[in-house]
Each structure stands twice: as structure tokens, then as C-alpha cells.
Amino acid sequence: MLFLPTFNGLFFCGALGAIAGLILAYSKDKTRLTLVLPVLTAFIVSTIFFLGIKQGIINGSLTIMVPALAYFIPGAVLSTGMFELAANNLVSGAARLVQGVVILLLLLFGVIIGLQVVGLPEDYIIANTATPLYWWAPYIGVLIFTFGMYLLMCIRNKDMLGVLIVLLATFFGQQAGNYFLGGLFGAFTGSIIMTMLGTFLERSKLRTPYYVSIIPAFWVLVPGSLGFLSLAALVGQNYSSSIASLIQVALTFVAISTGLLIGAAIADPLTIGSSP
């Protein structure tokens, strides 16, 4: 619902997400399978998605498939890598960035294989969009997403209030920034609010662990999803828009990491800087 799908798209978002969840549950104790899990899940989900597009059952864009793959999309990894590079932690920052890019490429590889198995041309990787849901859909989506993170991360009941506060504050801060100055300022504002509020709640009576409260909020900022969609557009030979989108994604990572640095400097949750 954060991507404003149609009712048709919302139904298939849930169906594809359920399939991805079953794959994750099946592979839980299978170490060897987890190594290829991003490619395997992307292949299965994309095959079903593109088959639905081909048969005219699914109406919408590639964003319908993104929630089903959200577990693997490395938005937090990429943003943390940028944060560490900005904090002069070059080795760990570069390692995280490489890891994030590799995961995105693995997901994209699975999607391309699924596209070829179905037999659609590559320009179908970016499908036509349809009329989205109402304006209130993202706000309901945040609440549903919070409950999903509660189940996925096995968050303690006493920490849920703190997680919900950080998530909603980040979302509304991002929306306000988007409204006044555009998407980059929204990502910047959201990351500052997320960092400062997460630190405050950890030190307050709630005692919500910092990383427990900010990880769900990272997903709301959706930088990894934007990167995945931009790479998909590039494969679909939509070169001009995809290159512009990739630049926008890179700037979004910079905005988020800068917000993390400023928020950390104000709230002082971390020791910023590198070791001598």
C-alpha cells in the first residue's frame, strides 16, 4: 500500500508475498539453500508475476512484485554502507556497499530469468501502471507493515510502542519533506527523525533497543526498492529514465546517510569516526 497499488495489484502483492514467505519458511534450516535464496525467490515470484501479466490477470507495474522481495532488498545495508563511508570507516562501508549491490544484481538476475521463462520481451519488465488506490492507502499500509515487522522480527510486545512511534514519525517526516522540498529532502528528514527518536526512546523509560526501532523505519524510506526498480528499468532498455533514476537513488542514499550522521551527531548514539 506504500506504493499505491490498484486493488488488483494489492491482491497479487499479498499472494506473491505469501509465496515468498513459504519459500523462506521452507529454507529456514537449509543452509545451502539460503545461499541461492535471493535468486530462487526472485525467479519464482517473477515467473508467476510475468505469467499473470501475459495472461492479462495482473494489471500494474513492477512495483507489485517489490513487496514480495522486500525481505531481500538491501536498503538498510546500502544506507549503512554510505553512513560508514561518510564516517570514514572505509573498509566496512565499502564491504556493505558491495554486498548490497551484489544482492540487488542477484535479485535482478532471478527476475530476468523469470521473464525469459515466461517468454515476454524485456520491455515488459516495466509494465503499464493503472489507477492507484486512494490517498489514505499508504497510511493504512504503514500500520499493516508494522504488524508484519512485529511477526518477522519477533519484536517483544513491550517494544512495539517504540517501534510504531519511530516508524510513524519517520514516515510523516518523510512525507512532509517530500511535500515541501521533494524526495531527497524527505529521505533526509526521515533519517534524521529516525536516528534521533530511536536514540531518545532507547534512553527513555520505554528502553526500546535502538536498532530494533530503526530497522523497520529503514524499510519505509525504500531506497533499496528504488534501486531495484531502476536496475530493472535499465534491463528493460529504458535507458534515459533508468540512468536518471539511478542517479536519484544514489542521491537518496547520500541524503539518508547524511541524515544518519547529523542525527547521530545531535543525539550522540554512536561514536562517529574511524579508529586511528
TrEMBL record:
Gene Ontology CC annotation, any one:
membrane
Q: Which InterPro entries match?
A: ThrE-like_N, ThrE/Ser_Exporter, ThrE_2
Tell me the ranges covered by the Threonine/Serine exporter ThrE domain, including all copies: 179-264
Superkingdom in the source lineage: Archaea
**Any GO molecular function:** transmembrane transporter activity
Q: Which residues cross the membrane?
A: 6-26, 33-52, 64-85, 97-121, 133-153, 183-201, 210-234, 246-267
Where would you find this protein in the cell? Membrane
Domain Threonine/serine exporter-like N-terminal: from-to ranges: 2-117
Instruction: Give one Pfam hit by family name.
Output: ThrE
What kind of membrane protein is this, topologically?
A: Multi-pass membrane protein
Keywords for this entry? Membrane, Transmembrane, Transmembrane helix
Protein family membership? Belongs to the ThrE exporter (TC 2.A.79) family.
Record-given protein name: Uncharacterized protein
Q: Which organism is it from?
A: Methanosarcina barkeri MS
Lineage of the organism? Archaea, Methanobacteriati, Methanobacteriota, Stenosarchaea group, Methanomicrobia
